[in-house]
Design goal:
189 residues, Lysozyme-like, globular, alpha/beta, two-stranded antiparallel sheet
Length: 189
């Protein structure tokens, strides 16, 4: 993957399905987020898993947003809340076992069958870039203020996602996005 930005503006809308997500998977966000934490799934029916399948399986976890394989942006939990997505993490020199990292960082899940060798595609990278630019604008954080789950998960090596994510391409997209990526609608943040 590399720079392939077309001349046409790519416009994204956020579909809000949060009314169907089990309330056990989110809580009120006590203060604005300071960045994002990127994940990739290892499945094909990610939305069902994030909206309640994980809780029914005894492993409650979700994401604030899901990016489908077609680049569709889906809000999974209600605005003003945070999903439980980070788990035990290393954060600012400490091991955080509560939900601090989930409250501080927006959880973005990119649908991708990791164990089957799938890799995030160009459309998913573009959708993530559009979402991050809106979040950065709203909350005044750098669009590069983000982490991969593998970088914070404790113990080291506990998580390997986002699998095959092209961070350089994401940065390039955001740097060149002012006239080519746009997110519309009020369901984003």
């Amino acid at each position: 993957m590399g720079p392939k930005m077309e001349d046409a503006t790519m416009t994204y809308r956020v579909e809000d399905v949060s009314a169907s997500t089990l309330p056990v998977l989110y809580a009120p966000r006590p203060k604005p987020p300071i960045g994002f934490l990127l994940h990739t799934t290892d499945g094909k029916d990610s939305l069902a898993w994030l909206q309640g399948g994980s809780a029914r399986a005894g492993k409650p976890a979700s994401a604030d947003f899901l990016i489908t394989k077609l680049g569709k942006i889906i809000r999974v939990v209600p605005r003003g809340t945070h999903s439980y997505h980070a788990g035990v993490c290393r954060w600012r020199g400490r091991i955080e076992t509560g939900n601090l990292v989930s409250t501080l960082l927006v959880g973005i899940e990119v649908e991708n069958a990791d164990s089957q060798g799938e890799e995030p595609n160009e459309e998913q990278h573009r959708a993530v870039a559009a979402l991050l630019l809106v979040g950065a604008s709203k909350y005044a954080w750098s669009p590069l203020c983000g982490f991969g789950h593998y970088g914070l998960a404790h113990p080291m090596g506990r998580r390997s996602d986002p699998h095959a994510w092209d961070w350089g391409y994401l940065a390039w997209l955001m740097a060149h996005a002012k006239d080519s990526l746009r997110l519309i609608g009020d369901a984003a943040f």
